Amino acid sequence: MRNWHLTDRHQSLILSSLDDALPHVAYWGAALDDDLAELTAASEMDVTGGMLDANPPISLCPEASQTFPGQPGLMLQDATGAPMLPRFRYASDQTRETAISLTYSDADLGLTLTFDLAIDTATRMITAQTTLTSDAPVRIHWLAAPTLPAPQLTDHMIDFSGRWIGEFQTTDIPWAAGIHMRESRTGRTGHEHFPAVILPARGTTNTRGDAWAIHYGWSGGHRMVAEELPDGRRQVQFGHAMGTDLAPVTKAQTAKLYATFSTTGLNGIATTFQRHVRDRIVTWPKPDTPRPVHYNCWEAIYFDHSLPELTAIADRAAALGAERFVLDDGWFGKRDDDTSSLGDWDIDPRKYPDGLGPLIDHVHELGMTFGIWFEPEMVNPDSDLYRAHPNWALGPAEQVLGRQQMVLDMANPAVGAYLYDKIAAVLSAYDIDYIKWDHNRVLPFPDAAQTRGYYALVDRLRADFPLTEIESCSSGGGRIDLGVLERTQRVWLSDSNDAIERLRIQHEAALFLPLDVTGSHVGPRHCHTSGRTLDIHLRAWVAAQRHMGFEMDPRELTEDEAQVLRDVTQWWKDNRHWRSTAAILRLDSADPSVIAEQQMADDGSRFVVFAGKHATSEQILPRPLQLTGLDPKARYSIRLLNRDDALPNLSRGSQAIKSRDMVLSGQYLMQHGLTLPWAFPETMWVIEGTRT
Ligand code: DGJ
To answer: How far is the C-alpha of 309 from the C-alpha of 331, rounded, in Å?
Structure first.
């Protein structure tokens, strides 16, 4: 028997391999210090009637050849199309304190399977990847990243779905016999299928209880199989969407799987992902430069670009506090609407007769940096590029278009070279520190080569323009995952700038995304995607919860609204230093109409709570809001930051918190909770806390 133990001192992942067979997870949970052989023996299950004479383990790659009673981790054929049923045996292993590499082979079939697993002791993230090599080319239908067992004392899994302007919707899926499968077959991560699952133990909430989480870091669409076997055991497999990588190969590798276990509720999952994304996944071109407040012109002007208008808007944006000006869609080709010009990445001389220089110079004179929009992987049939190279489009000429556009074949090296040259020309000609990289339609069919081509183009541009940041946008949040975040610094979480929608979307997304990568903009007074009219206080505070920006025409703001926005932006700048590494802790709100979170400084010395009320409550008075993660014995000075401008006239009581700071123990704040004043719906309380 062989055993391996990965631990970060909070969680343990213990692997065991019996009789040279593939290893399986004998234990994944809170850290242990047991004798590994004894623990493996203890976790062996009984055999009874109607079963095989031994239980085929849920190995890191369950094998059909072992009569595994569920989905195998590998499905492949040889060059003649004959199915292969490998039976892997131990070949070698390399073990370091926080990383192991386990190699197993099937000598008869000429196949080798390697599992690379590592644990990050600071972020508490487990990373796992499977690699298959073959002596002769094989066709791979399904290759799972290392298969993990799911706990049996959990009633449901938390699954993610969504849509345009409605990303990160969580669903509780009850465990039942058989398969719960999620597959994104759109060729991108997708609004509909954020590639993750959370397995909460019975009774787990945001702030307490055990939970396991698994995420697949791939931008081409994934497949997840969460299966309860007839014997009651449960397994979770993630890999590329099935059959999207069918060319015969001698080597195949899954994307990285990210997994973590928490004893502190969903917040333990969230803080691991937030930290790992911020400190290990994203590379920051200028790590010591604070995140700049953005201005993006999309919802102000759409395709209607004119230098006088844009310079006037830039003046107002800078005066409000913007530090980076992002020129969105419409500056190239003859792009007067969304029917043409994708692919023609030359500056439109009708709109910019002297190039982008005059606008960029103006933006720089105002003290802002300049960013620009591209949608590189797309082409409109009405474009010079398509007319010259119709065969560069992916899929048949006769296909259903999406936003009047087609997808370029990113696996074609000529396409990659063309796009590189076009983008590099713009980045070389001007001082540009930011690209908003969009992707507005699904692929005509899913194809892993497309994602590899996209990654290669981004990687090449990043190597040559290392100081340029990139935002991943795909009609909002259609391409968010840890694969894309290895190459970008920000995600455009949603095209919804409706603060009420955004409050929910960013609350759920905080299970995975830290503050600094999550873009959030103050939209127009009348929201363009919901038709709602929302007050500037709410719009400003919701944007201030994440990486703040503005996206309305600032000339629509009254002087009072502009002042609110200036004040909140200044607060954001004054606090961005510590909030940049703060943990976003989701609070268990006793009132479903209140979505609340606590952003806790790394050193525990301070926090800010955002309590957003998106609807009216059932009961009359606010329910106390329990805080979390405080030192029960410490005292905290509590200030209702926006008490002067947010108190409605219907709040008639004389609560102390309305007029002064209060000093309360962590114990009280966590056990009883904060009793906030009565509030209108569509408002937000902002509470600052400082350890005294
Ligand atoms: C979709 C994006 O999500 C928007 O923010 C905007 O950039 C448009 N595309 C531009 O076409």
So the answer is: 14
- Sequence-distant contacts of 410-414: CB under 8 A, at least 24 apart: 410/377, 410/449, 410/450, 410/451, 410/452, 410/453, 410/454, 410/456, 410/457, 411/447, 411/449, 411/450, 411/452, 411/453, 412/453, 414/389
Residue 644's pLDDT is what?
Answer: 85
**Per residue in 161-184, pLDDT tens?**
999 999 999 999 999 999 999 999
Q: Whose CA is nearest to atom 9 of ligand 1?
A: 475
pTM of the model: 0.98
Over residues 475-490, the mean pLDDT reads 98
What gap in Å lies between CA 110 and CA 243, rounded to an integer? 22
Quick one: which atom of ligand 1 is closest to the CA of 473? 3
pLDDT at 426: 98
User: Relative to the CA of 474, which ligand 1 atom is closest?
Assistant: 3
Q: Does residue 288 carry a catalytic annotation?
A: no
| Contact yes or no for 38/53 (Cβ under 8 A) | no
Closest by Cα among 173, 180, 158 to 228 = 180
In angstroms, the CA 102 to CA 92 distance is 6
Cβ < 6 A, ligand 1 pocket: 298, 328-329, 373, 438, 440, 473, 475-476, 492, 495
Average pLDDT, integer, range 242-257: 95
Buried b (16+ CB within 10 A) or exposed e, 25-60: bbbbeeeeeeebeebbeeeeeeeeeeeeeebbbbbb
- Please compute, for residue 353, the number of CA atoms within 13 A of its CA located in the half-sphere on the CB side: 1
The residue whose CA has the least distance to atom 1 of ligand 1 is 475
Across the strands, what pairs with 16? 3, 24
State which ligand 1 atom lies nearest to the alpha carbon of 495: 3
| Predicted pLDDT at 647 | 87
**% of the chain exceeding 90 in pLDDT:** 98
Tokens standing for 500? 């009420």
CB 225 within 8 Å of CB 512: no
Instruction: Look at ligand 1, atom 10, and give the residue with the nearest C-alpha.
Output: 329
Mean pLDDT of the chain: 97
Band of pLDDT at residue 122, cut at 50, 70 and 90: very high
Least confident of 151-155, 208-212, 248-252, 575-579: 151-155
The whole-number pLDDT of residue 645 equals: 81
Sole residue written with tokens 């937030």: 274
Ligand 1 atom closest to the Cα of residue 492 is 3
Local confidence band at 246 (pLDDT 50, 70, 90 cut-offs): confident
Separation of 244 CA from ligand 1 center, angstroms?
Answer: 27
Whole-number Cα distances in Å, 411 to 64, 384, 415, 449: 33, 21, 8, 6
CB atoms within 10 A of CB 114: 19
Residue among 120, 159, 409, 438 flagged as catalytic:
438
Which is the catalytic residue, given 120, 210, 495, 553? 495
CA separation, residue 386 to residues 342, 373, 415, 539, 541 (Å): 9, 20, 11, 41, 44
Q: Is 490 helix (H, G, I), strand (E, B) or coil?
A: strand
Q: Is 438 a catalytic residue?
A: yes
Angle at 190 between CA 184 and CA 196, to 5 degrees: 70
Residue-level pLDDT at 668: 98
Q: How far apart are CA 366 and CA 363, in angstroms?
A: 5
Read off the pLDDT band of 646 (50, 70, 90): confident
